[in-house]
Amino acid sequence: MLCSLLPRRRYCTSVAIAHNSQISRYARLGQIESARRVFDEMPDKGIVSWNSMIAGYFQNNRPREARYLFDKMPERNTVSWNGLISGYVKNGMVSEARKVFDVMPERNVVSWTAMVRGYVQEGLISEAETLFWQMSEKNVVSWTVMLGGLIQARRIDEAWRLFDSMPVKDVVARTNMISGYCQEGRLAEARELFDSMPRRNVISWTTMISGYIHNGQVDVARKLFEVMPEKNEVSWTAMLMGYTQSGRIEEASELFDAMPAKAVVACNAMILGLGQNGEVARARQVFDQMREKDDGTWSAMIKVYGRKGFELEALNLFAVMQREGVRSNFPCLISILSVCATLASLDHGRQVHAVLVKSQFDSDVFVASILITMYVKCGDLVKARQIFDQFSPKDIVMWNSIITGYAQHGLANEALQVFNEMCSSGMATDDVTFVGVLSACSYTGKVKEGLEIFESMKSKYLVEPKTEHYACMVDLLGRAGLVNDAMDLIHKMPVEADAITWGALLGACRTHTNMELAEVAAKKLLQLEPKNAGPYILLSNIYASKGRWGDVAELRRNMRVRKVSKSPGCSWIEVEKRVHMFTGGVSMKHPELSSIMKMLEKLDAMLREAGYYPDSSFVLHDVDEEEKVLSLGYHSERLAVAFGLLKVPEGMPIRVMKNLRVCGDCHSAIKLIAKVTGRDIILRDANRFHHFKDGFCSCKDYW
After folding, report:
1. Whole-model pTM over 0.85
2. Count of beta carbons in the 10 Å neighbourhood of residue 14
3. Nearest to 646 by CA among 690, 608, 598
4. How far apart are CA 449 and CA 477, in angstroms?
C-alpha cells in the first residue's frame, strides 16, 4: 500500500511545483488574473501556493487582494507572515506592516529585518534604529540594512561606528560604506576602505570610480578604471558619464568607441552628452545606429532637439515615436510640452496634455505649471486659466505662470487681479512675481501702478529689487515716453545696469526717436555684448528712420569687421499638426507659394480699399519708395497670416509666431486684415502677444 502511494505523492508534488512556478511567472509579467486562475484551479493548495499568490498580488500593487487572501489561508507559517510584512513594505505601507509585525505569533530575523528595511525605505531612520537595537538576533543583512539607513540619512560618522561594530563585514557592507563616504565628499576615507578590502567585486570598483566622478576627479577615476580586473556595462557607463557630464566629449567618444558592448543606457548617456555640447548631428547618429532603443533613448534625443533649438525635429521625432508604438515616459512628455510652448504648437500641446491626463500625471503641481505655460505661449489663455482655477493648492510657480501669461497678452488688469489674489491667499511673492507684474504694467502703459508696486517691493513685500526689476521699470518709463526719467533711474541703480536694461532704453529711444540717448545706450550695449547684433540693428533702424544712410552703412561695416551676424526674421504657423516656417521676401521656398502670393495680392487690394498705405519708414534700406512698399508686403508675418487665411477654417483663430518684434507697418496691416476678413488673428512676437480683432489690437498700439 505504501509503495503504491509513493509515485502519486511525487506526481502531486511535481504538479504543485509547476503550478506555483506558473503563478510566480504570471505575476512577474503583470498578468495577475491569469495567476489567480491557475491558483483557483489547483485541486490541492499547499501553503507555498497561498504564499506565491499573495506575493503576486503585492508585486502587482494590489495589497487589498493580498490581505484578503492572507486572511482566508487555512494555515500560515512564519514565511507567510514575513511575506505579508515584505509586501506591505514594497507597497510603501509601513504602518500596515508594523501592525502585522506586532501581532504575528512568531518572529525570526527575517521578520525583524523586513520591518527595519521598511522604516529605512520610508526615511524613518529613528524608528528603524529603535527596532534594530531591540533585535535579539542580527545577521549580516540586518546590519547592512541599518547601515544603509544611516548613510541615507547622511549620518556618516554614526554609520562608520555601526560598520566598525559589525561582527561580519561582507563586500556589500564595505561597498555601502565606500558609497556613503563618496556621497559626503570624503574620498580619502573611501579610498582607504577600498584599498583595505580583502575581496572586491565589480560593484566595489564601480562604486569607487563613481565616487571620484561625482566629486569632479574624472582623471583619478579613469586611472582606477584602467586597472579594474573586470568591467561590466555599469562600469563602462559610469566612466562614460564622467566624461559627458564634465563636457569632455572627445574623451567620451573615444571611450564609447572602445566599449566592447554598447548598452542602451550608455548610448543614451552619449546622446545627452553630445547634445549638451552642441553636437546634435552626432547625437542623432548614435540614435540612428542603435539596434535597440528604450523610452529613455527617444526621450534623450527629443530633449537634445528641444534644448538646442531644433524644435521641429523634436516634434517630428515624437511623431515617429508614436507611430512605432513606443510609450512616452514622463521626461519625454515634459520635453515635448516645452517644445510645444516654444513653437506655440497648440494641437500637439493638447495631444500631450491628453496623454498626461490618461497617465494621471496632470495632478502634479509641476506638470500643471508647465501646462499653464504651454497654453499661455500658445495663446489659449482660457485653457491656461481653467487649469489654474481647477488646481488646489497652488504653488508659487503656478501663480507666477498665470501672472506672466496675462502680462505677455497685455492683460494688465487681470495680471494685477491675480497678483492681489495671490497676496490675499498668504502665498509669499518672489522675484519672478514682480517681473511678471511690472512687465504687465509696462506693456499696457500703467506707469502709476508700476511705480507704486516697484517702490513697495522691499517695504511691503520684503523682496529686494534686482537688476531685472530695474530693467522692467526702465522699459515702463521708456515705453511711456519718459526716456529721460528712465535714464535717471539707470544712474540711481544700486547695481551696474546690464544689457537687458540698456536694451530697454535703446528700444524706447527708437520708439521715441531720441538720438542722443540712443547712442549712449548703444555704446554701453556694445561694450557689454560686442557680439550681439541687437544694438547694431536698433541703432541702424534709428539712423535709417532719419535718413542717415551713411551712419547705417558705417554700422553695418563694423558688424562685418567684428563678424557680428543678425538673426533673420522668420514666422511660423501650425496647420493640422504641421508647422510651416516663413522667411521674408519673394524668394522664399514653400510648396504653396503661388497660392500665398495670390492671397497677398487679394489682401493688398482689400487693404488699399480700406484706406491703408504702407509706412515705408519701417523698411530700413536705402532704396526707392516702390521697393520699400514691395519689401513690406513680403515680411514673414504677413506670409504666415496669408497662409493661415488659406488653411485655417472659418471661426478658428489664426495663430502666428515670430522670432523678432513685429514691425510697425505689419502691425497696422494685420489690424486691417482682421477687420476686412472678419478673422481673429493672434500674433506672438519676441516680446508679447497681439490679439487682432475687428481692426483693433489687444496692445492698443502700445508695444
Report:
1. no
2. 10
3. 598
4. 12
